[in-house]
Amino acid sequence: GAGVSQSPSNKVTEKGKDVELRCDPISGHTALYWYRQSLGQGLEFLIYFQGNSAPDKSGLPSDRFSAERTGGSVSTLTIQRTQQEDSAVYLCASSPSPGPSGELFFGEGSRLTVL
Amino acid sequence: KQEVTQIPAALSVPEGENLVLNCSFTDSAIYNLQWFRQDPGKGLTSLLLIQSSQREQTSGRLNASLDKSSGRSTLYIAASQPGDSATYLCAVGSNYQLIWGAGTKLIIKP
Known about the structure:
By secondary structure, chain A is mainly β. In chain A, about 0% of the residues lie in helices and about 45% in strands. Chain A is built from no helices and 10 strands.
């Protein structure tokens, strides 16, 4: 597609349930990032994928969070046993260049509400 | 440790005014600096990307400057319009990471 696509755009779930958020990056972009943005807060880095290299998972807040990127394209962020503090907008970005040197293109985000 | 600060946190100005948003960073060893805008309930849109070797970038009514030695970048918006109302974020490429400011919420009053 023309831009980064994220789904679902909105997700309401009950505490303790698992959720999956999907990101479809711009075709050909080798770098993919997941960020979390809580209400009124800045962006919190979660995870970074670059090509076939091992992902940088240093931003994942707990072992309930995991992410994978299949075939170097689509990525799925999974949150297990969701908690109310997981409520946030989860943003995905892709870049044609590795690391911080490239321009980032963001999706519109997935808004997660945990009741 | 790189820290990025944006001041002010919020700004409200009448339509037509020229304005400046500020972004400061503590470590001058950066790869680049990017300015983004975020509309309510939306993702981020890249506005300008300044590489570390550059002093400024321009796009339409927007001009971003970079002064590494003083750890500052400014985003200048000329002839502001209500459609410019959004939150503006800067991000610094540093130490193989992107470090984000908390943003400036801009309101342009018609």
